[in-house]
Amino acid sequence: MKSAAFLILSSISSVPTLKKEVASISEKRKITIAVDDISRSKPIVVKEKVRDLLTKACEDVADNIVALPSGAGHDANQMSLLGPAGMLFIPCKDGRSHCPEEWAEKEDVCLGAEAMLRAVLHFCEMEAT
User: Fold this and answer.
1) How do residues 69-82 score in pLDDT, each as one tens digit?
2) Which one of 5, 25, 38, 72 has the minimum C-beta count within 10 Å?
3) Residue 52: how many CB atoms within 10 A of its CB?
């Protein structure tokens, strides 16, 4: 479950559109809102080779995996400037992430770590051949 702010922001397609919406809200509510760009990253597309490698690693350790896009500006954006990057997600209670209520079971954390280890080992094997 995503936060209301995430749902609103994900429906806005660009920074100018966001600023226009903020101005509209500001005017309607007769309040002053300041908008500062403090960080912006271009989205990346994870290379198919990396997606396949991560998928195989996850399938090696878990029966039920789900591929999902991430609109978040994770470190993968920056790491992709250095080389291939991808992300693994583990289930969190009620789908909550990056908030005080975030919780993951130890078993899921362990499965995620095992999948990541396998992905790194698969990647090393591929690079060695």
Assistant:
1) 776 666 788 888 89
2) 38
3) 12
